[in-house]
Amino acid sequence: xxxxxxxxxxxxxxxxxxxxxxxxxxxxxxxxxxxxxxxxxxxxxxxxxxxxxxxxxxxxxxxxxxxxxxxxxxxxxxxxxxxxxxxxxxxxxxxxxxxxxxxxxxxxxxxxxxxxxxxxxxxxxxxxxxxxxxxxxxxxxxx
Length: 143
Prior knowledge:
Blueprint: E1 22-24, E2 31-35, E3 57-61, E4 87-90, E5 95-100, E6 107-111, E7 119-123
């Protein structure tokens, strides 16, 4: 019998832009979670840029040796007031898929575009996190 444990619940206000992938980081063992902005067209609630919500983000949590999760101490926003410490990167519309390069550990995030551009956002291995990929302020290189 498989035991299922809920470790994190994020309310999705709309049926689209919900992200979609979970993956363990090959170098750090942390769980990465792609979360879409959960919004209608244009992110009207500015969730991609708001650091007090988990929507529109790539999250990083530690699920080892706990019944829920803990925040990895090197996460970029652990000491920032009014900011969710689970956030690894923000400014994402819908990071539906992402992948760690097997040789280098670099992270490529497939971020679904709104109108003109689909994005592949790049995070080099060993980067400290906290990068803003621009959504809703820009899409691709277009603002």
